From TrEMBL:
GO biological process, one term: chromosome segregation
Protein name: ParB/RepB/Spo0J family partition protein
SMART domains on file: ParB (SM00470)
Annotated keywords: Chromosome partition, DNA-binding
Domain ParB-like N-terminal residues, every copy: 33-122
PANTHER family (UniProt xref): CHROMOSOME-PARTITIONING PROTEIN PARB-RELATED
Compartmental location: Cytoplasm, Nucleoid
Primary subcellular site in the record, as a coarse category: cytoplasm
Gene3D superfamilies attached to this UniProt entry: 1.10.10.2830, 3.90.1530.30
Organism superkingdom: Bacteria
GO CC aspect terms: chromosome; nucleoid
Length: 287
């Protein structure tokens, strides 16, 4: 068995101990078979939803000239085969009217197939931020995987996973703009602190029209929030409370609201998923 690492290493083996991804890609050539392309179906859980038309056209022309050089990875299903990795090659081969395509047939369950498909796309950086977030959520929701386990498997930090999932709280029109590359995930994270979806979209349109960077977006968001807060408050916030709130937010990595009265008050800590709640609890308890 190869010991070569490709960025995921033992993290992937923690979830798929018997099927290291690097070995899937390094199958012996004797295990490659030519399958009827019409017997192969795309993976319904494929995290990647958008395929660049120009890139597909270029790949089609390459396949017409040189054939499919790298085999795709499939698994046997009741009627034919399902793609684990290599849907772009399969699509381009169909466009090129190729009748048979080289494949490596793997005996993996649906969950492992989805993970391999996700990880292949993550390694190749083919997923846009929204597709990535949806894929993360699918693994967590459908297969009872924690954020910590997922972070180890895909070689991303837990805060990265959490921030990615938080994007899904944005309005659908903003998510579409992120998917289309009109605004970045950084813009999206800045907009998350605006609860009003209408205002979110107004700022997003401003970002696109004026080509604002993330820092400029954060300044606009802060201005909107400050105006909203000034309407709600008749008195200036106690500097001590403001400093305490900022320290809480920096420590916990989430929104914190302190409602301070004359003799009593309360602290509200926001979380965005059960895993995020667990993360915040860990920080509080350990300290």
């Amino acid at each position: 068995m190869s010991t070569k690492k490709r960025g995921l290493g033992k993290g992937l083996s923690a979830l798929i101990p018997d099927e290291p991804f690097e070995d899937v890609l390094e199958e012996d050539k004797n295990n490659i078979v030519d399958l009827d392309i019409d017997l192969i179906k795309p993976n319904k859980e494929q995290p990647r939803k958008n395929f660049d038309k120009d890139a597909l056209e270029e790949l089609k022309e390459s396949i017409q000239n040189y054939g499919v050089i790298q085999p795709i990875i499939v698994r046997k299903i009741d009627k034919g085969y399902e793609i684990i990795a290599g849907e772009r090659r399969w699509k381009a081969a169909k466009m090129a009217s190729i009748k048979k395509i080289p494949c490596i047939v793997k005996n993996v369950e649906e969950f492992e197939g989805m993970k391999l498909s996700l990880i292949e796309n993550l390694q190749r950086e083919n997923l846009n931020p929204v597709e990535e977030a949806i894929a993360f959520k699918g693994l967590i929701d459908n297969y009872n995987i924690t954020q910590e386990e997922l972070s180890v498997a895909v070689g991303k930090s837990r805060p990265y996973i959490t921030n990615s999932l938080r994007l899904l709280n944005l309005d659908s029109d903003i998510l579409l703009s992120i998917s289309d590359g009109k605004i970045s995930s950084g813009h999206g994270r800045a907009l998350l602190s605006i609860e009003d979806k209408k205002i979110q979209n107004e700022i997003a349109k401003n970002i696109i029209e004026k080509k604002l960077n993330v820092r400029e977006t954060e300044n606009i968001v802060n201005t909107v929030k400050n105006k909203k807060n000034s309407v709600k408050k008749s008195n200036k916030e106690d500097p001590f409370i403001s400093e305490a709130r900022d320290k809480f937010m920096k420590k916990l990595g989430t929104k914190v609201v302190i409602k301070h009265g004359k003799n009593k008050g309360k602290i509200e800590i926001e979380y965005y998923s059960p895993e995020d709640f667990e993360r915040i609890m860990d920080i509080i308890i350990k300290n």
